[in-house]
């Protein structure tokens, strides 16, 4: 015969609360079934889709299959930090291609992973052929999975300018790029970069153009899909998880602007000496009124004020600290006479104030301050001066900034405080439809799975849970009712047993019934010849513990009662 002590205790508690034996067994059975169902749900695996390499074609499409290292090469260059610093950084961060370790959403789907935290990483892959976006749509799409979140670091990619001298071993922060795109976060800065290098048709120099109001990145541990589409008509759009979050024009939304101003201020023009740009002046005909008293004070004594009746004139505002004690190592000859530190006088807290009373100050109704003449419009005013405009000698108009320079490689050149950033399913090409089809094969299959895994990890919120034990109803949930009431009784009883009995009488009243029922169950098990020796011993131990608990409860109640009587005596003596 197997004996479940916990079940017996719960059953006894239900019986003590006035539940019949049949109902008690039903409640316990329902509770057990619910727990088992929850356990089964929590451990049931989510069915994962299986990765299958795409058959789509593109100028560059990377899914990090087994031959990935024939295309991607880590950089061993030194990072240039500028002439003002002596520090020299090397790209020591390691890379790996592996499946995700957080919220794995697809079986066999590997990605390029940043392996080191607080390190500089750089890796690149050359395109089979240069990509020239002139006159075509340019689509840049890739997945980012921040498996450890992102507190400070980048997860953006760079499309590198076509250059025959481009060596992957030397890829660094100074390698010329055409487009930089992707999330970047550090502290309060959180954005999706879109930067392109624009060539000045007059000087041949390149200048970075930054999206003026970039969207925010999603800092989550599930896979996120970032897409940039630039059309030949100079419009662009940025998508996250297939939804457009930003769109606009290359000619309007970037700083510095693509095209400079046609006219500029003449640097040789100067403001004439007699130019008057003061719009208003003091009225020269105004005079100070004869009754204007500039010496009148801002505040005066309130002669009508009277001292509050509870003001304690003879009480000092501070008193020596009665709890302060002279330090044992204090030497009167060397340190002087010891004086206790002062503390605010507690008597002053309960009244309007202490010490000498003086009449308060009030605002002077006759105060007018220093007189000044009122302002009038300046008759000589000519308006704000501005230098004349001249034609901008550096002016040009590029009507097709979407015709980016040819691109020869892709690279990740980042620094991050978090590792395990995963990149996957990179598409660089000209087909919006193919990029969408790739996302359908990969991202939109695994992302819902990852979201389910993420949701399963979140702590479950109990719906319709009563805000207070007093709101519980025995008929609705007997087990929770008894548990919450007992917990409340124990919590109050630790401080004041008498108050616990008054506040939760149903527990105090049911305690005796609980002990009697519990002991009866154990006694029947012990007396029954079929119970094995270990069960009898366990029952005997539980019986003794139950008796001990009963004695302690009685003692706690008695002690609480004595405390209550003693408090009553003290109150009586203090009032006499």
| Largest beta-sheet characterization | 9 strands, antiparallel
- Number of helical segments with 4 or more residues: 9
Mean pLDDT: 83
Helix content: 25-40%
Rg, Cα atoms, Å: 41 Å
Q: How many beta-strand segments? A: 27
Class of secondary structure makeup: alpha+beta
**Low-confidence runs of at least 5 consecutive residues:** 1-19, 31-44, 563-576
Kindly estimate the percentage of residues that lie in beta strands according to DSSP.
15-25%
Q: What is the CA-CA span between the terminal residues?
A: 67 Å
Shape annotation: flat
Disulfide bonds: 152-186
InterPro entries: Calret/calnex (IPR001580), Calret/calnex_CS (IPR018124), Calreticulin/calnexin_P_dom_sf (IPR009033), ConA-like_dom_sf (IPR013320)
Subcellular location: Endoplasmic reticulum membrane
Transmembrane segments: 507-527
């Amino acid at each position: 015969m197997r004996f479940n002590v916990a079940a017996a205790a719960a059953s006894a508690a239900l019986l003590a609360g006035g539940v019949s034996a049949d109902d008690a067994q039903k409640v316990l059975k329902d509770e057990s079934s619910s727990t088992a169902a929850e356990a089964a749900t929590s451990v049931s695996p989510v069915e994962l889709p299986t990765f299958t390499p795409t058959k789509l074609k593109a100028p560059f499409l990377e899914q990090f299959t087994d031959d990935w290292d024939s295309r991607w090469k880590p950089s061993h260059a030194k990072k240039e930090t500028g002439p003002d610093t002596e520090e020299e950084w090397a790209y020591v961060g390691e890379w790996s291609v592996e499946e995700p370790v957080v919220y794995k959403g697809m079986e066999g789907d590997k990605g390029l992973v940043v392996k080191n935290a607080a390190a500089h990483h750089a890796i690149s892959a050359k395109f089979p052929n240069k990509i020239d976006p002139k006159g075509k749509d340019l689509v840049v799409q890739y997945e980012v999975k921040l498996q450890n979140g992102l507190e400070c670091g980048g997860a953006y990619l760079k499309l590198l300018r076509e250059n025959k001298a481009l060596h992957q071993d030397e890829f660094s922060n100074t390698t010329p790029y055409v487009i930089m795109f992707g999330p970047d976060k550090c502290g309060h800065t959180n954005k999706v970069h879109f930067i392109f290098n624009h060539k000045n048709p007059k000087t041949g120099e390149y200048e970075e153009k930054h999206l003026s109001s970039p969207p925010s990145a999603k800092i989550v541990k599930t896979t996120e899909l970032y897409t940039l589409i630039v059309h030949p008509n100079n419009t662009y759009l940025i998508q996250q998880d297939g939804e457009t979050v930003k769109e606009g024009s290359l000619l309007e939304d970037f700083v510095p602007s693509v095209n400079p101003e046609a006219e500029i201020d003449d640097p040789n023009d100067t403001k004439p000496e007699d130019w008057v740009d003061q719009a208003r002046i003091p009225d020269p005909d105004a005079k100070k009124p004869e009754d204007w008293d500039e010496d009148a004070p801002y505040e005066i004594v309130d002669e009508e004020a009277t001292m509050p009746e509870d003001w304690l004139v003879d009480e000092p505002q501070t008193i020596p600290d009665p709890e302060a004690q002279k330090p044992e190592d204090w030497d009167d000859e060397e340190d002087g006479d010891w004086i206790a530190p002062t503390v605010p006088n507690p008597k002053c807290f309960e009244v309007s104030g202490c010490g000498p009373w003086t009449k308060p100050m009030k605002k002077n109704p006759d105060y007018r301050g220093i007189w000044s003449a009122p302002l009038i419009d300046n008759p000589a005013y000519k308006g704000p001066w501005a230098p004349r405009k001249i034609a901008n000698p550096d002016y040009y108009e590029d009507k097709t900034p979407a015709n980016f320079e040819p691109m020869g490689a892709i690279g990740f050149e980042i620094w991050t405080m978090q590792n395990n950033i995963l990149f996957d399913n990179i598409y660089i090409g000209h087909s919006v439809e193919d990029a969408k089809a790739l996302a359908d094969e990969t991202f939109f299959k695994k992302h819902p799975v990852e979201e389910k895994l993420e949701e399963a990890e979140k702590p479950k919120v109990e719906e319709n849970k009563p805000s207070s034990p007093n709101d519980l109803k025995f008929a609705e949930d007997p087990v929770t009712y008894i548990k919450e009431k007992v917990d409340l009784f124990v919590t109050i009883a630790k401080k004041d047993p008498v108050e616990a009995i008054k506040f939760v009488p149903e527990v105090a009243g049911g305690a005796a019934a609980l002990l009697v029922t519990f002991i009866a169950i154990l006694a029947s098990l012990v007396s029954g010849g079929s119970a094995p020796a270990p069960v009898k011993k366990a029952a005997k131990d539980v019986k003794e513990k139950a008796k001990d608990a009963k004695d302690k409860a009685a003692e706690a109640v008695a002690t609480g009662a004595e405390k209550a009587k003693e408090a009553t005596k003290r109150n009586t003596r203090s009032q006499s």
